[in-house]
């Protein structure tokens, strides 16, 4: 039964015999008396952590390491470092985010004098830049001996030529400890594009560039703590040995930990949350994953500061199909958020986010933030190298329960680590190049502001208030309505490259 102005979420989700996904519903428009710039996307990640953008990167080994976490934190979100690695490796990733200073690259790509011009071109093809410091042995731990930029190789016909023959050795550098304004002034006066930073022994410790200084000049929305350091999260399992991992992460300055379980309502997770809140009370804890009110109440009762919602909706996840256990994401977000709201605990919608509309619907159903995997996996900052398939630039993206990820520890979240027979609950695949995170977050943020404007709400807080008082209305969409809402009835059309503005 339809109504002239739509239905409340309560009517839609509590009276329907079916579970609903994001594509099954649509929001009714509201009254517009403000511009997109007036929309405030500030939201809560946990009880104590506030974000300026409702965006969280998933703790997957093809999504979030330090480069992703830095980029997203600078843009107002937060990254969660995956744990398909040793404790020391994960701690090192966290420390890189915490030590980050705007404009300074602490782990620049380097080459040795014995590398070739072709190696520089390969880096340019994969990463989009070619200003490469040259060190004695090709690592950041050795002495800086030169630098190669576009002007050194642009007209070099022999791509097999050694870099020692083409590199510039008249290097303008700065000493370790230099401030960003001082580095900017050196670049301005020298008219150089790159400024290596070296220690007293001449070893490379960092790199900054004119382009990065322009980009990093000001990040008013950056997610920082009281000490003005970027905030970062990390994933851990429920296993007892990960208590040592948590202790090391806490010492490294991690802001929040995600208990990474496919089914989070377990005695193992309850015990881990209780231990963390007792042993490391300053670390915020995100529990999950859960999809029902009962599960949500159980994790909140033992001390969770936020909940991660979703069981099987991700693009590379096959849990619902293989295990026959889970829940459609729209219904899961609505019911868990309803339970969590009673305790002022935020929920994070995890999985099934592929377009701006999905983020808007997740927030409209009560989520305070969205966790994205495939949406962020194809960016410059995600781990891995670009590859080409049929002329398309791609990156690998795999589920943490895919066989590939399970071989290196991804099965820790599925209680299957010690089992001889592995049952995959995810797949491996490729996602298309989406350019830089700064461009992508800018695009998503502006799209969300426009969506909020269409709905007639100015902030996440007022959106949630409208959800609760029933003034926010929805309608169900038939398959025909979903088709009507997309591109249709054309002979052909050009799909806009919405995410990647690299060539625009």
What features would you describe in this structure?
This protein is of the alpha/beta class and 504 residues long. It has two domains: 32-101 and 221-384 and 435-467, Aldolase class I (TIM Barrel, Alpha-Beta Barrel), CATH 3.20.20.70; 117-215, CBS-domain, CATH 3.10.580. 32% of the residues lie in helices and 16% in strands. The protein contains 18 helices and 20 strands. The protein has helices at residues 9-14, 66-74, 87-99, 117-127, 150-153, 180-190, 210-215, 242-252, 267-279, 293-301, 319-323, 329-341, 356-364, 374-377, 403-406, 437-455, 460-469, 479-484; strands spanning 25-27, 43-44, 50-51, 55-57, 78-81, 132-135, 144-148, 174-175, 194-198, 204-209, 233-236, 256-259, 284-290, 306-309, 347-350, 369-372, 387-389, 392-398, 428-432, 474-476. An eight-stranded parallel β-barrel has the order 4-5-11-12-13-14-15-16, surrounded by seven helices. Strands 8-9-10 form a three-stranded mixed β-sheet. A hairpin with a 5-residue loop joins β2 and β3. α2 (66-74) packs parallel to α3 (87-99) and α13 crosses α16 (437-455). It is globular, with a radius of gyration of 24 Å. It starts with 8 loop residues before the first helix and ends in a 20-residue tail after the last helix. The model has no long low-confidence stretch (mean pLDDT 85).
